[in-house]
Design brief:
Elements lengths: L2 H26 L5 H23 L4 H28 L4 H8 L6 H16 L23
Helix pairs in contact: 1-3, 2-3, 2-5, 3-4, 4-5
């Protein structure tokens, strides 16, 4: 593959990533709570991890590098959504922090933490109504005549 063709492909990939990021931000405004946003961010994280696994299985170095780059972009697309989830509900602070480390730490180092955090989001019982209480409600206030 020539350098010009590789640059063209990376340019299209970057443009697509900008579009996906814009859509992610727009869709994050539709999320009603932090857990919904964390699940949304985790769809990007899951795609990123899958791409990274595909990259590791490639014998073609150019294709492996392309998949690794796509994995990185997918993970970075999760960042604004994870940040909004953390803003809405502090329990997602760890997810946002781990995703934000992807610009300094190799993604392969982060995958186990990201996978664990997304398992929590996918099976989250947070943001649900609490169980009924056994404490009786207060007596009504007496009305004045």
């Amino acid at each position: 593959m020539t350098t010009a063709a590789l640059r063209a492909k990376l340019g299209r990939l970057a443009a697509g990533s900008v579009l996906a990021l814009g859509l992610g931000i727009a869709l994050s405004a539709c999320g009603s709570n932090g857990t919904a946003l964390a699940k949304q961010a985790c769809t990007h994280v899951d795609r990123s991890i899958a791409l990274l696994k595909q990259s590791a299985q490639q014998s073609d170095q150019v294709e492996a590098a392309r998949l690794t780059q796509r994995a990185y972009i997918e993970l970075r697309d999760a960042l604004p959504i994870a940040a909004k989830a953390a803003y809405d509900d502090g329990q997602w602070q760890a997810l946002m922090t781990t995703v934000s480390e992807s610009n300094r730490v190799p993604e392969t180092t982060l995958t186990s933490a990201l996978a664990a955090q997304c398992r929590v989001a996918d099976s989250s019982t947070f943001d649900q109504a609490p169980p009924p209480s056994s404490i009786p409600p207060p007596a009504p206030a007496p009305s004045s005549p």
